[in-house]
User: Fold this.
Amino acid sequence: MKPRRVEDRQDHYYWRAKKEGYRSRAAYKLKQMNAKFGLIKPGYWVLDLGASPGGWSQVAAELGASVIAIDLSPMKDIEGVTFIQGDMTSEETWEKIREIRDRFDVVISDASPKITGHWDIDHYRSVELVEAAFSIARRFLKPGGNFVVKMFQGEETPKLYAEFKKHFRFKKLHSPPASRKRSSEIYFIGKGFGGKFKPKKDE
Ligand SMILES: C[S@@+](CC[C@H](N)C(=O)[O-])C[C@H]1O[C@@H](n2cnc3c(N)ncnc32)[C@H](O)[C@@H]1O
Assistant:
């Protein structure tokens, strides 16, 4: 496949993904975050939100996890990954997840709206996805579970981070080396869901 954009042609991770058989350069972001923070272990159940074309799911499956992956767009099969095509913000999709599995060790979300390059617009469009990912995490994460969610930085970031922080023992805003330098994306990493701040029973 030919690289579509100038930035892709210049991009080390783009070529590396082609060479090493990953479906996206994003795969290296999860690899790097996992190496640094120890998020996914063999035998874990992982819920991958905004998963297509499947780089993160490939990495999670390689790490020995069983994966349920969600995306609006279709995704080609990956061994060890069950794919649900649907909107992660809709109850209908949540119900489909629940039918397969009710509790996960890790929830990861690389979901993003179509990027415009305007930081403010991209930020506000991503907030809904970040909030949905967090609601899903609160619904599906086991106590002690881990969470990763991408957000495009902006006005709402401190508020969202303050809310996340209450629910995890370890928390960090992190930008992996594989993130493009000029991108406004940042990842919230939470480990130890519940921690000393137990979520309410109805959440
Ligand atoms: C950056 S891509 C994810 C790349 C993926 N992590 C990988 O490694 O291949 C972002 C994805 O979020 C998905 N997405 C955006 N809004 C969504 C929604 N409401 N529900 C489910 N997926 C969504 C898009 O369809 C797109 O495939």
